[in-house]
Write a structure and sequence with these properties.
CATH topology of the largest domain: Uridine Diphospho-n-acetylenolpyruvylglucosamine Reductase, domain 3
Strand content: 15-25%
Distance between the termini: 10 Å
Bound molecules: flavin-adenine dinucleotide
Number of helices: 15
Number of strands: 16
CATH architecture of the largest domain: 2-Layer Sandwich
CATH class of the largest domain: Alpha Beta
Radius of gyration: 23 Å
Oligomer: single chain
Structural class: alpha+beta
Strand order of the largest sheet: 5-6-9-7-8
Length: 463
Amino acid sequence: MNYKKVTDEVIRRLKEIVGDENVLCEHLMDYGHDETHILDWVPPEVVVKPKNRTEVSEILKLANREIIPVTPRGGGTGLSGGAVPIYGGILLSLERMNRILEIDEDNFVAVVEPGVILAELYKAVEDRGLYYPIYPEEESATIGGNVATNAAGMKAVKYGVTRNYIMGLEAVLPNGTVIETGGKYVKNSTGYNLAQLLVGSEGTLAVVTKIILRLIKRPKKRCYLIPTFESLGDAISTVPKILKEGIVPVAIEFMSGIAMQLCQNYTGIKLPIPEAPNYLIIIIESDSELELKNLTERVNAICLNNGASDVFIVDTERDMKKVSEVRAKLHFAVKSLGLEDIGDAVVPRSKIPEFMNMLGEITRKHGILVSGSGHAGDGNVHFSVIAFGTPKEEFNRKLPEILEDVFRGSVSLGGTISGEHGIGVAKKKYVPIAIKQEQIELMRNIKRVFDPNCILNPGKIFD
Ligand SMILES: Cc1cc2nc3c(=O)[nH]c(=O)nc-3n(C[C@H](O)[C@H](O)[C@H](O)COP(=O)(O)OP(=O)(O)OC[C@H]3O[C@@H](n4cnc5c(N)ncnc54)[C@H](O)[C@@H]3O)c2cc1C
């Protein structure tokens, strides 16, 4: 695609649309990356910060007329390079569209702008006695970014993924047309569900400008169980056993002993649990004290019968918060060790033990540590490729082969290559491992219908 450059005349027009102070032309490197490790930083030519859908529409009309690429950006916390403006052009930052427009307690619905960050959304909703249960850990991410990546996180075991909470969207197409799809109603069989098509489309089809979110009531009681295991196999094979019993915890997270120590050192928080080679963190919620007690006893027994050396029950708010803080810093703690890449391949839950064994084989094959940790309860154990002392050149040479092995392995187990971070630019060359050519072509055709000039987030998901 031959994109045009952002000229002085285009900048003048952008300033007319959003005001001088909301067009940035210098020091743009902060907008040239997200949290993906392996990608080069690429600054945009200009950053534009619209305040409403009319301004978004005018910006897109201008870009579409001039054939200038536009990259939407929320909090820039993505882990696949989706918000990196690889062709330069206009970086459309949604940071000023950050209002919570309505919390409708009668319909259990929140109506929000895309730039609302998760920390604020959680607080506003909880202040009204309601709950938005999707928790993709990084609370500085925006709800617009969550919609675009179909984010999930540890609570997916019980609550599912962002898609399950989207009742409707307002979005602006690349030609500037505003569409409204879905609404506050529960059922909808009225034609194609465009809102759900936009969820997970990584800003390649439209810019989301308003989101109608489903809320729920938060269960009143919760408790954490932390079983310790000598054997990795026992820890991981406990996960399907709990689920097979019909127990649905909020989360089942796996952490190796090294990861647990690292996170405690990193955060300076000492948890009231002993050192062990492997841990699960199991979160259970219920409305009734009695049911919570019953579930806790059953999970406890399953863990002990499956080789746990001990099970620690954490049930005070203060200690549960500490465990969450330790777990939440896993990414940054591992990064401090020399993490070079983190992946979110996903497999059916019953295949997690095989997936973990496979990571061990890949480590031995390439002589570079590929460790798994995180969302064991939904089959989305994240793998970290850790360089340690491997020379940069050797690491860079081996990384694509390692990624290919992991992705081929997850697909061979009946899984796929991304469970929640999206494809972006980092994983696009591996998409054919997971999706047949004719389906990729169908996706390309959908892209052409929405965006015939290919101005919106080009080079993401596929070329
Ligand atoms: C420490 C850490 C832990 C994380 N843990 C998890 C986790 O457990 N689960 C999980 O799912 N993710 C996780 N992530 C990844 C990240 O937080 C999510 O991908 C999040 O959804 C990105 O939101 P964002 O606002 O930062 O989006 P950005 O990174 O800014 O953008 C992501 C994508 O969304 C598009 N986009 C953004 N806003 C819009 C819009 N309004 N309209 C159209 N397209 C848009 C962008 O173009 C891009 O393709 C983690 C990240 C970090 C750093």
